[in-house]
């Protein structure tokens, strides 16, 4: 199948990168800040009310692929999906009930975390559970914005 970049949707870049990871012949992961992301809050699509629900949809679709398909770079794909899952947890208060249940069902993704923050969220989740982890991630994201 072709790699598709779906314009006019939220999280289209995340889905596109996951498609690339799933089809690449080789992947090299480096622990380095390779680009700077600037979010202009007034015009960012990520601030739209539908954005968190759409991101959960992407995470859920890729969670199914991580579990069911023989992906050539499963660890890289799962690691990126785990990172995005953590971001979804920080928006749990903005999700519809159906998307909250999808997140709850796919909490296993955190176990694939490749970065330090996602691994920390996984540890926190195993001790405190789903709801408190969502509150903690939301608090962290809020504090990060004001500092």
Structural overview:
By secondary structure, the protein is mainly alpha-helical. The chain has helices at residues 12-23, 51-68, 74-89, 97-105, 116-146. α1 (12-23) runs antiparallel to α3 (74-89), α2 (51-68) packs antiparallel against α3 (74-89) and α2 (51-68) runs parallel beside α4.
Binned strand content: under 5%
Task: Give the SSE order as H and E letters.
Answer: HHHHH
- Radius of gyration, Cα only, in angstroms? 15 Å
DSSP helical segment count: 5
- Spatial separation of the terminal alpha carbons: 44 Å
Mean pLDDT: 85
Spans of 5+ residues with little confidence (pLDDT < 50)?
Answer: none
DSSP, total strands = 0
**Can you tell me the overall shape?**
globular
Helix fraction? Answer: 55-70%
Give the biggest beta sheet: none
Alpha-beta classification: mainly alpha
What topology emerges from the helices and strands here?
Layout lengths: L11 H12 L27 H18 L5 H16 L7 H9 L10 H31 L1
Q: Could you name the key traits of this structure?
A:
single chain, 147 residues, mainly alpha, 0% strand
Would you kindly provide a brief summary of this structure?
By secondary structure, the protein is an all-alpha fold. The protein has helices spanning 12-23, 51-68, 74-89, 97-105, 116-146. Helix content is 59%, strand content 0%.
């Amino acid at each position: 199948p072709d790699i598709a970049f779906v314009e006019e949707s939220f999280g289209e870049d995340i889905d596109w990168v996951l498609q690339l990871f799933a089809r690449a012949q080789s992947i090299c992961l480096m622990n380095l800040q390779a680009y700077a992301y600037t979010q202009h809050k007034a015009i960012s699509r990520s601030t739209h009310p539908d954005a968190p629900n759409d991101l959960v949809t992407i995470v859920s679709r890729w969670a199914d692929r991580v579990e069911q398909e023989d992906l050539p770079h499963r660890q890289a794909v799962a690691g990126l999906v785990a990172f995005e899952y953590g971001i979804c947890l920080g928006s749990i208060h903005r999700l519809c009930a159906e998307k909250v249940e999808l997140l709850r069902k796919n909490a296993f993704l955190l176990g694939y975390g490749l970065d330090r923050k996602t691994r920390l969220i996984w540890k926190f989740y195993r001790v405190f559970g789903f709801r408190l982890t969502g509150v903690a991630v939301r608090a962290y994201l809020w504090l990060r914005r004001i500092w």
